[in-house]
């Protein structure tokens, strides 16, 4: 069986059980917390702009979750300690998947906002979220996934390359040239259908 076809494990590591499901409006507060901690540096707190950032993220995510577009999913990952099963679950990761036009107006499922809170990283959660995205893309009838990653985000690059994503192009922009901002790398992965990978 191909690794990319294995469904996410209920146990990512021995100390907690992992559950992945579609995000719901009641998850919004925790979801915003995960995204804020993952994508915005602690300096934003000192500068006093964290509340404004959180408000923007909240409205953005709320609109997408409520849109009910057929080819959009926001997934959330929860953990529950296995030694204390009655302990409240914790939202520790998220990812979004949607159709986007790429080359020649071809639509490809596109992964964005893959995030895991720092204390739960390097425990397989991001990989399980990627695998769930693959499964959804197959259910939609697609054989390819795509995403962007910044050239200076080496940890994310390692994750994607180790999961079969390949560099398609390096995107140069005016801001990357003028302001020395990191370039965006466009990655894609061909995924097997369920019949091929699970024989």
UniProtKB/TrEMBL annotation:
Q: What is this protein called?
A: GNAT family N-acetyltransferase
Annotated TM spans: none
Q: Which domain of life is it from?
A: Bacteria
Q: N-acetyltransferase domain: which residues?
A: 18-192
Keywords of the record: Transferase
Q: Which GO terms describe its molecular function?
A: acyltransferase activity, transferring groups other than amino-acyl groups
Q: By its UniProt entry, which Pfam families does this protein fall under?
A: Acetyltransf_1
The record, for InterPro entries, names: Acyl_CoA_acyltransferase, GNAT_dom
The answer on whether this UniProt entry bears the keyword Transferase reads: yes
Q: What taxonomic classification does the UniProt entry list for its organism?
A: Bacteria, Bacillati, Cyanobacteriota, Cyanophyceae, Oscillatoriophycideae
PROSITE patterns named among the record's database cross-references: GNAT (PS51186)
């Amino acid at each position: 069986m191909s690794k990319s076809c294995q469904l996410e494990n209920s146990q990512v590591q021995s100390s907690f059980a992992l559950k992945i499901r579609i995000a719901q409006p009641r998850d919004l507060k925790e979801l915003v917390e995960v995204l804020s901690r993952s994508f915005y540096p602690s300096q934003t707190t000192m500068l006093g702009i964290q509340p404004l950032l959180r408000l923007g993220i909240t409205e953005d995510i709320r609109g997408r979750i409520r849109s009910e577009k057929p080819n959009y999913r926001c997934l959330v990952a929860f953990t529950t300690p296995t030694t204390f099963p009655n302990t409240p679950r914790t939202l520790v990761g998220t990812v979004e998947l949607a159709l986007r036009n790429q080359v020649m107006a071809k639509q490809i499922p596109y992964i964005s906002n893959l995030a895991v809170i720092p204390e739960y990283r390097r425990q397989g959660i991001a990989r399980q979220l990627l695998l769930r995205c693959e499964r959804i893309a197959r259910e939609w009838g697609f054989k390819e996934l795509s995403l962007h990653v910044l050239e200076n985000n080496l940890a994310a690059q390692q994750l994607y390359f180790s999961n079969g994503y390949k560099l398609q192009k390096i995107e140069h922009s005016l801001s990357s040239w003028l302001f020395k901002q990191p370039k965006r790398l466009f990655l894609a992965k061909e995924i097997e259908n369920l019949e091929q990978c699970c024989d």
